Amino acid sequence: MFAGEVGTPAAFLGVMPTQSLRRTTPDPVWFDCEFPRLPDDCEFDQILPRRLREYSAFHWTTVEVCRHAATWLVSGPETRVLDVGCGPGKFCAIGAFATAGHFTGVEQRKRLCRTAWDMLEHYCIPRVRILHANVMEMSFGGFDAFYLFNPFEENLAPEFKIDDEVPVEIQYYGLYIDYVRRQLSQLRLGTRVVTFWGSCHEIPPCYDCEETAFDGKLRLWMKRRDLPVEQSSFAEALKGDAAIFSII
C-alpha cells in the first residue's frame, strides 16, 4: 500500500507532520490563491523546514529547470508524470504550477514525504500526489513521462547522501538502474523522459536524446523503437568493476 496521496489530510493517513507549515510558515508573497506565480528558489526554500534548506543547492532542482523540464514532459492535461526520488516535492509542485499535467512523486524517505504532504495540502496545489515507496514497488505503465534527477547516485557516493534514514550501498545502484531500464523499455513509443545531471545509465538504448538545455545537463529522451529486453545487468557489472561508473 502506498501512503500520502495529496488531498488526504496527513492525520487521516496516520502521518503526523514533523513541522506544520501552517503553524510556522506564513503564506509566501509569490503564492496567491487567485493569481499564483512561480517562485524563485529562495522564495521556495522559505516554505521548507529549516533543516531541509541546506540541501537545496545540491539536491533539489532549481525552479527554472523544473519549469523547463515540466514543459518538455507535459503535452496536455492528460499527461501523467512520475518523478523518481521526488524529495520534498519541489519538481511536482512547480510542474503543477507551470503546466496542466498530473504529477506523482515517489520518495522512500518518509520525512521528505511528510514535508511534501504538508506543503501540498497547505497551499492546495492541485494535480499532485506524493507516494512513500521504493521505486521498485512502482509500475511505470500508468505514466506517460518521467523525471530523473540523479535519484540513485548517492549509492555510488554516500558522502552526498541526505541522511541515514535509508541504506545506501553500491549494489543498490545497479538494482535500481536495472529496474528502471526494464520499466522504461516496456513503455509505448513516444514515452518521454527528462534527466538532469547524472550518468543517464537509467535510459535504455531504445530511447534517443532529442533536446538538451542548461549546458547539456538537462536532457529530453524519447522512446523511438522497440528492442528486446536487455539481458545485461548493471548490478552484475558493478560486482566486477565499480570504477567504470562515474558521476557526471
- Count of DSSP helices? 9
Described by the principal axes of the CA atoms, the overall outline is globular
Structural class: alpha/beta
- Let me know the number of strands: 7
Strands ordered across the widest β-sheet: 3-2-1-4-5-7-6
Helix percent reads: 25-40%
**Unreliable parts:** 1-26, 242-248
How would you portray this structure in words?
The protein has 248 residues and is α/β, with parallel strands linked by helices. The chain contains 9 helices and 7 strands; from the N terminus they run αααααβαβαββαβββα. The protein has helices at residues 21-24, 41-45, 50-53, 56-59, 63-73, 90-98, 110-122, 170-185, 234-240, and strands at 80-84, 102-107, 128-132, 145-149, 192-196, 207-213, 218-223. Strands 3-2-1-4-5-7-6 form a 7-stranded mixed beta sheet, with helices on one face. β6 (207-213) and β7 (218-223) form a beta hairpin. α5 packs across α6 and α8 (170-185) packs antiparallel against α9. The longest helix has 16 residues, at 170-185. The two termini are 35 Å apart.
